[in-house]
Design goal:
Layout: H1 2-12, H2 22-41, H3 46-53, H4 55-58, H5 70-91, E1 97-101, E2 107-113, E3 117-126, H6 130-139, E4 151-160, E5 164-171, E6 182-193, E7 196-203, E8 216-217, E9 219-220, E10 223-230, E11 233-243, E12 245-246, H7 253-277, H8 280-283
Parallel strand pairs: 6-8
Antiparallel strand pairs: 1-2, 2-3, 3-11, 4-5, 5-6, 6-7, 7-10, 9-12, 10-11
């Protein structure tokens, strides 16, 4: 009876449900099937409380009075797929080769991945708590051009729910102008699970941001940053950044490899400098 009532509230009582098509309709059907499964496996009714407290994940946009379009749902799915693929690459510890290492322990590793190409992995420890890094890298993403000279501008083109955004990034010239201006249109997804935060993304299409004259449209492959408190020192954060980029154009691989590994090292340096010069209290203003 509870399940039937819940289904009625969640779907049958809304007129638009009869007309929903495509991904939205499939999503609602999947939700109904999942709730059926959980009800049969948990006769105590505890699953009802989980639905009540996590309604955004189970009923998504409808209970939050936000109905995503099929295109928006496709962006959400693309962001989550990028996250899963990037985490899968990071989880395999074999085959990584050292590209660069600094005296402070910062290092860049690389690896060839089938169907992706060469990827780079930055590993650093930042003397700041996770929440501070999350604030700068996610909540204040559009301000990155103010402290990272490798980025001219990042603009959020569209926000989809609380986890997904479409961005346009204009990168500065690199390697003594051997690498001309590039821009990227990406879908980005941010997830926090307990003490771990994952920021992931990949190239996407966005009709309102066509290619710009004089700028080469490059593409991010599956990329991600993983943040978590350093074991034994919760006031410090371990940051791992997986970078996969197709810069397009006619560039020697040696130049590309040098630029990408150098970009990661410089990112860590500029991030630390920015965090030290901008106290947390000021950052929240």
């Amino acid at each position: 009876m509870l399940l039937a009532t819940f289904k009625l509230c969640a779907g049958s009582s809304y007129r638009h449900m009869r007309n929903m098509k495509g991904l939205r309709h499939q999503a609602m059907l999947a939700i109904g099937q999942e709730l059926n499964r959980r009800a049969l496996g948990d006769p105590s009714g505890a699953w009802i409380n989980q639905v009540r407290h996590r309604r955004s994940s189970l009923l998504g946009s409808r209970l939050e009075e936000t109905l995503y379009s099929d295109q928006e749902l496709a962006y959400i799915q693309q962001g989550e797929e990028a996250m899963q693929k990037a985490l899968g690459i990071l989880s395999n510890q074999e085959g990584w080769k050292k590209e660069n290492q600094q005296e402070n322990g910062d290092k860049v590793l690389s690896k060839m991945i089938p169907d992706v190409g060469k990827v780079f992995r930055l590993e650093v420890v930042v003397d700041q708590p996770l929440d501070r890094l999350y604030e700068e890298l996610v909540e204040r993403m559009e301000a990155m051009g103010e402290w990272n000279p490798n980025v001219k501008e990042i603009k959020v083109l569209q926000r989809i729910g609380k986890d997904t955004v479409i961005t346009h990034e204009l990168a500065a010239e690199a390697a003594g102008n051997l690498v001309g201006p590039r821009d990227f249109v990406s879908v980005r997804c941010a997830k926090r699970r307990g003490s771990t935060c994952v920021l992931a993304g990949m190239a996407t299409q966005f009709g309102e941001m066509p290619e710009q004259k004089g700028v080469i449209r490059a593409e991010h492959g599956p990329t991600c940053m993983v943040l978590h408190p350093l074991a034994g020192s919760p006031s410090k954060t371990k940051l791992t950044w997986l970078l996969s980029i197709d810069l397009k154009g006619w560039l020697p691989k040696t130049i590309i490899n040098q630029v990408l590994s150098q970009t990661q090292m410089e990112f860590a340096k500029h991030l630390r400098k920015h965090l030290e010069s901008r106290p947390a209290a000021e950052a929240r203003c």
